[in-house]
Amino acid sequence: MMTTVDLTPQQALERFFGFTAFKGEQEAIVQSVLDGKDTFVIMPTGGGKSLCYQLPALMSEGTAIVVSPLIALMKNQVDALRGFGGEEGIAHFLNSSLTRNEAIRVKKDIKAGVTKLLYVAPESLTKKENIEFLQDIRISFFAIDEAHCISEWGHDFRPEYRRLRTIFNEIDKVPMIALTATATEKVQEDILKNLDIPGASTFKASFNRPNLYYEVRPKRDVAREITKFIKQHAGRSGIIYCLSRKKVEEMAETLAVNGIKALPYHAGMDASQRADHQDRFLMEDVDVIVATIAFGMGIDKPDVRFVIHHDIPKSLESYYQETGRGGRDGGEGKCVTFYSYKDIEKLEKFLQGKPVAEQEIGKQLLADTVSYAETSMCRRKYLLHYFGEHLPGDNCGACDNCLSPKEMFEGKDDLELVLSAVKESKERHRAKYICDLLTGTETSEIKNYKGDALECYGAGQDKNAHHWMAVIRQANVGGFLHKDIETYGNLSLTDQGRKFLKKPWDITFTKERDYSDDDGGDDEAIGGKNGAAADERLMQMLKDLRLQVAKKNKLAPYVIFQDPSLEEMTTRYPISIEELTHITGVGPGKAQKYGRPFVDLIGQYVEENEIERAEEMVVRSVVNKSSNKVHIIQNIDKRLPMDSIARAKGLTMDDLLDEMETIVMSGTKLDINYHVNDVLEPEAQEEIMDYFRSAESDNIQAAQEEFDGDFTEEELRLMRLKFLSEVAN
């Protein structure tokens, strides 16, 4: 391939980018592209992937066509290239965000030979006018960034990527370079096969990022834990990933009220707002971005010091790519993930209704994520094994499992039992089946395959399925078992596994932690224990005080403060009315009305027991936890119909009642008489009000049983709102 400037890659690197040396295999990759070879690059985030196609494009005649999935990523890269190249037209993008005049300008620059790189979205390539235009220009090569999007086994599958080879054939026969930051062996095969480049020169950099620290924490009091963590790393840049837009908004708001400069980022925001938040993060106006996975692709911020996962991602590829945005400059990068098996169950529900093959792939990817989260072996070793790379030794010195000692157990007999079960069941089943077999659990699969007739059925019933799953994981990473991706995870013996069965030897395994009892972390009471007081003695004292205050006011105890609010007080020890307002379910109104004796009691208790109230323990919660609070209060004041209030915010009536309960529980009055009077007769209202005055709890189910189904759940919830507004607030 002819180059426009007679420079070596080394000279071009210095001239265009100002670097004096290549990283890793960059030079060999650039040379491969310049030599006109199909090239395949697997290089972790932060390894300098984009330079592998940018440099040969700048050195070659014609325009390189770069296929990229995200508009934000294109803009970011084009801006950077213009900064390096000086000339405005050196790089352009062609996508749906351009006006007609802007698109004409782009095509003019390409025809004039000014443009060296043209970024296109795969959707833009399917347009007839674009194909015809590209057929008329000189193309140096095609580059496919984020090539894992081609594979259904990749973490970001995009069907339009499947058509790329056909479209390229239509445009021009030129060399191709495919690049990805995360690809298991299965995904790598898919990419090469789909792009029809079986003989491509392949360059695979190590997936090990030694500067990243990996930690998985049980999912409890997540908002509080995250706030504390960020305060301990004040002034440092970080990203927090959440699975839902709602959680992104809530988390960003919680951080903001705790004095942390944080902004949300998700696909529900308009493009200009997203771009603004991204720029403010890059320019360091804000320290933290709370985002859905939409954020970060192609964002080249080298000094992200922590990446927190509020929710576990749906695949290890996603996890690896998202954590890979930390410490790209080689400096510190802390990757903390909050995990509860309940989150996995939610993700499994999202798979329902999808085609069977897609569900099977999704479940397998989730199973690998669970294994990573629950393992007690070195996390780095496990992660690298997943990507087909071996890390020598058993201690990386930079993950939670390696830094805190774990209980070990002699695994010789257990491993022998697992391998025998795999062999006896003809090496055609997955891990769950083997666990059911060993524990003697009757399932439809066991019956269908007559597993209950096998010798190993129930042979390991003295231990639970969690234990056997841990042995299977460690046997897999240790090279005794092979997990076949094509059959969605069937286990078979390796040569080492067969050798072990013939003559077993001593082996130790790590005891794994069971996360199944974690609360799922959607903490209605931030800082609360959701049903368990942190200080049982103080809890009893607060309950006794609540009873006294309730009797004095002739009210049921729950009207004063509910149990979750008392539980949170035992965790955070508020000793002033102002601090009390930050307890969930206690707004300013309630704190003023009933709070004084409670904070006095807690203050005295803290002093007598010499309790240290660490400042970071006092994490402010977003009291109403509702971005709709103002909308609801204002419209109820205007006496607007409830269904109109709900519809305006895209809420169901159930959702609206949830929001209203949050508002009222934190001490704000809502006058909903205008609506209640339309729904219930005065006599019925009085009857329900009498019930709530004397009831020990405000439980709706108990109320329905009391009235023997005479009133609907919605009617009772409305009356509870009226009662609490008038009596408690």
Number of helices: 34
**Mean pLDDT score, rounded?**
81
Q: Regions with pLDDT < 50 over 5+ consecutive residues?
A: 519-531
Q: Structural class of the secondary structure composition?
A: alpha/beta
- The side-by-side strand order for the widest beta sheet comes to 3-4-2-5-6-1-7
* The CATH homology group name of the largest domain: P-loop containing nucleotide triphosphate hydrolases
Number of strands: 17
Q: How can the largest sheet be summarized?
A: 7 strands, parallel
- Label the CATH architecture of the largest domain: 3-Layer(aba) Sandwich
CATH topology of the largest domain: Rossmann fold
Round the Cα radius of gyration to an integer and report it. Answer: 30 Å
Kindly provide the name of the CATH class of the largest domain: Alpha Beta
Shape: globular
What number of domains?
5
Percent strand equals 5-15%
State the distance separating the first and last CA atoms.
78 Å
In short:
Helix content is 47%, strand content 11%. The protein is an alpha/beta fold and 729 residues long.
